[in-house]
Amino acid sequence: MKLLLRDGQVAHVLLYGGRGGGKHQKGSDIELGHLCHGVVSGRSSSDGLLAGKEFEATWCHQKIRHDYKAYALCCFFLETINKLAPQASIHDWEEVDENESVHNDEMVGFFRVLSNALIYLDRSLNTQANLPGQLALFVSKLMLELGIFPLLEKCVLSGVPLSSQLRLGLLAEKGGFADAGLIADGRHGASQTPLWKFLLQVRETRYPDFTFSEDISVKELVDYFLFHVHLHPFDFKTLSLVI
């Protein structure tokens, strides 16, 4: 099983203890998007897998699995993290007692963003969920963690301070927003000012406290994100299902 560890690294773990299946067809409590707790120890086989035991689910989504679009979004969250999070080195675990820590806090943001995104998505399905907004929030919080968040204070072309009164465009290659009147090729027909205001809110608001206001151009935001992580839409199996 592939797991995202709490320190933000991805590890391939062989679980012992018979979780699901078998002659009694017992359902597994460890599924995509579940938060689990257990013990990970050193190498378990010549394949280089880590050994896991005493695993149990500590949080399970209740609504996502019954909503096709929400489940597709959940899968996109997981696929994105899988592409960006570093692989845990098997050598870090070989000489470590199972009670010791091998955590590397540099990438802990991956775990923080993913866990918040899944919990918030599941809760939102109790009301009228804004799935495009959930996608935009996930991508934006991830950009904050990665240090590729768009510049919001000044126009990236003129250096003039930005405000909500301006008609703005998002320029991925410049790393931020610009006055749409200065964008020579006219790429931005629709104003991206709502997206600019959305990102201001994302930067200042904790995940659990976030509320959506006006509609934004999610595709523009995703394109910006993919540009800066050097990925293409075709690199994803799930992106076409959510945008």
Entry summary:
With 243 residues, the chain is of the alpha+beta class. The protein has seven helices and six strands; from the N terminus they run E-E-E-E-H-H-H-H-E-E-H-H-H. The strands form two sheets. Strands 1-2-4-3 form a four-stranded mixed β-sheet. Strands 5-6 form a two-stranded antiparallel ribbon.
What is the name of the CATH topology?
de novo design (two linked rop proteins)
Q: Indicate the overall shape.
A: elongated
Q: Number of DSSP strands?
A: 6
Strand neighbour order, sheet with most strands: 1-2-4-3
Helix fraction, binned, reads 25-40%
Report the β-strand fraction as a percent range.
Answer: 5-15%
Beginning-to-end CA distance, first to last residue: 28 Å
CATH architecture: Up-down Bundle
Number of domains: 1
Uncertain stretches of 5 or more adjacent residues: none
Gyration radius, to the nearest Å? Answer: 21 Å
Description:
This protein is an alpha+beta fold. It has one domain: de novo design (two linked rop proteins) (Up-down Bundle), CATH 1.20.1440. It contains 7 helices and 6 strands. Strand 5 (168-171) and strand 6 (176-179) form a beta hairpin. Helix 3 packs antiparallel against helix 4 and helix 4 (131-146) runs parallel beside helix 6. The longest helix has 17 residues, at 68-84. The model has no long low-confidence stretch (mean pLDDT 85).
Could you outline the blueprint of secondary structure elements for this entry?
Layout: E1 2-4, E2 10-15, E3 35-43, E4 50-59, H1 68-84, H2 91-94, H3 108-124, H4 131-146, E5 168-171, E6 176-179, H5 193-204, H6 218-228, H7 239-242
Parallel strand pairs: 2-4
Antiparallel strand pairs: 1-2, 3-4, 5-6
Helix pairs in contact: 1-3, 3-4, 4-6
